[in-house]
Specification:
Elements: H1 3-15, H2 21-41, E1 45-48, H3 54-57, E2 58-62, H4 64-67, H5 69-87, H6 90-110, H7 133-154, H8 160-182, H9 192-213
Antiparallel strand pairs: 1-2
Helix pairs in contact: 1-2, 1-6, 1-7, 2-6, 2-9, 5-6, 8-9
Bound molecules: zinc ion (ZN).
Amino acid sequence: MFVGHFAVGLAAKRVAPAISLGTLVLAAMLADILWCLFLIAGIEHVEFRPAMGAANYFVASEIGWSHSLLMDAAWGALLAAAYLLRRRSPRGAWVLFAAVVSHWLLDWIAHRPDMPLSPAAHTRFGLGLWGSIPATLAVEGGFWVLALIVYARAFRPKGRTGIFAFWIGAALLTLAWYGNISGPPPRDAHSAPYVSLTFFSLAVAWAYWMNRHRPASGR
Ligand SMILES: [Zn+2]
């Protein structure tokens, strides 16, 4: 998924308002950020073919270190432990762990079967939601819109930045997502992980920024 992971970050902010939205989005997107780093390092591999939509243009994916259930639980435990050491909040640590592991669940729904349970496992899982654009718009899009509404009602903008930068950011994410589910593969497979890593980093930075401009409404 794509905006579905951001929806988890927004919804989790309702559950754990003390955690920055940036940290929650980082947790929900951690598997994809690691995926970019592992592709760059040559630990993981993907191959593209000329077709429209990510469900069709990925032909071979070796993504077990970033996207297996076992490793996502391990990355989640690491992030949760780091948070626990710094902030001494077990509840916050559990929310971050759940946000990291939710990535596997959402990608299992969206991906064609390429999601393993562990890096060494050969069986792959995936329901393939992204194979249907209308179904993706309904399920992932519906979740995204719902999370935006829930978040925007609970965390009111302090000023114009909190309004415009938030909704422009949300619109850009929506456009990038639509390009992913319906558009062509990256033109250059070599630079693709660098481009994605930059995009994800900017999205996490945006979430940290929005956290400061949309404090809890106190209701
Ligand atoms: Zn992913």
